[in-house]
Amino acid sequence: MKKSIRVLIVDDDEEDFMITRAIFNEIPNWECKVEWAPSYHEGIREIERRNHDIYFVDYRLGMDDENGLSVIRESVKRGCNAPMIVLTGQNSPEIDEEGMKSGAHDFLVKGSFTASELERSIRYSLNHLKNIEKIRSLNAELERRVEERTRGLHQVMVELELSKAETEEALRKEKELNELKSRFVTMASHEFRTPLSTILSSLDLILRYSADEHLAKRTKHIDRIRVTIKNLTCLLDDFLSLGKLDGGAITASPELFDLKPFCEQVTSEMQLLAKNEQIIHYQYLGTQTVVSMDPKIMKNILINLLSNACKFSGEESEILFTVRNQGDRIEMIVKDQGIGIPENEQKHMFSSFFRASNALNIQGTGLGLNIVLRYVEMMKGTISFASGENGTAFTLTFPVNALEY
Questions:
Q1: pLDDT tens digit string along 262-284?
Q2: Burial 345-381 (b: 16+ CB within 10 A, else e)
Q3: Cα-Cα-Cα-Cα dihedral sign, residues 361, 319, 333, 268
């Protein structure tokens, strides 16, 4: 039995439309009803009617400010969830990346794709849509369960005749839980969807660059996948650390170790992950170097602060990492030359899921500093910061010899 699908092609060139429609007719075991919108505005109107299963949009529609990508952006803005595939006259990774940012699921080069490649692109895009719909369904189920739990809590409170103060406190905590859940779902959906789309598009491009002369392009996309997976791993590590801390699965286990080479090793590891021409300057001040701390927790703290310093600073910048032995206490300072934190937002710095308004386009979970604060307090330390236009400096203090916290 043939698969049936309704397709809309938005293209101001009728000859290109006829050629693309002919390729659709060559797809075996598919019955494709292909319709045409010859302009930007007709394309927007047709997409808004939701009469098609998938949309193919020409990258250039003949107008500078109303091109195919603006059709996709406007349609997504108006709530269209159906897959969008960009049709372009040139094989360009930049167009692919620009299309993905606009909301496209794939792109095809006019005059070079076969019926088989077209069928693969349609199948991939429809499957990707199903996966997104599953995520939405899971989110809706999570909402339903939270609502049920809220109703249950209200009923229990009524049955137990809680006092007004206790009731207000329970409602406040439930509201905070709902807000945290909503922020988590929103953040996780965005932070995971973007790198997953990047990986999928890069894999697709690697398959296209099969010839030997495309080695450089293949290597570029392999590196892109490697970096994206590393970023995903960091996101997952934040979620896992938060869960373990909330569940009481992490406790400090102090042991004697030499802090000076320990911090030097951490600095060397983070230098490998720094941006182009970024330099981490490490300095240890003091003669005593042996301390009693939890080295695993200390390493997690330093990696988080140093990686933030690199992430929020530009290329060719300097990051200062200073450790001072003050006899009975250790002071650590991590200072960057980054974008700083807006003054009116600094009070939220250590809150879960907090992202400063000037850092929303930089990948992250908003959990790192909350985790650092909890680690520092676990080792009986303190943390403070100062931030301005010239960067941010975090200051940590810990007891030197605390065999038992």
A1: 999 999 888 877 888 899 999 99
A2: eeeebbebbbbbeebeeeebbbbbbbbbbbbbebbeb
A3: positive
- For 130-156, the pLDDT digits (tens) are 877 777 777 778 788 878 888 877 777
Q: In sequence order, what are the residues at sequence separation of 6 or more whose Cβ sits closer than 8 angstroms to the Cβ of residue 216?
A: none
H helices, E strands: number in the chain: 10, 12
Domain locations in the chain as residue ranges? 3-119, 162-246, 255-399
Is residue 258 classed as helix, strand or coil in its secondary structure?
Answer: strand
Regarding beta strands 279-285 and 318-325, do their DSSP bridges make them parallel or antiparallel, or are they unpaired? parallel
pTM flag (> 0.70): no
Q: Which residues lie closer than 8 Å to 27 by C-beta, 6 or more apart?
A: 115, 118, 119
C-beta neighbour count of 247 within 10 angstroms: 8
What's the CA gap between 182 and 26, in Å, rounded?
46
What is the fold, at CATH topology level, of the domain defined by 255-399?
A: Heat Shock Protein 90 (3.30.565)
305-317 in b/e form (b: 16+ CB < 10 A) is bbbbbbbbbeeeb
The CATH code of the domain at 3-119 is 3.40.50.2300
CATH 3.30.565.10 fits 162-246, yes or no: no
> CA of 207: how far to CAs of 118, 211, 243, 394, in Å?
14, 10, 38, 45
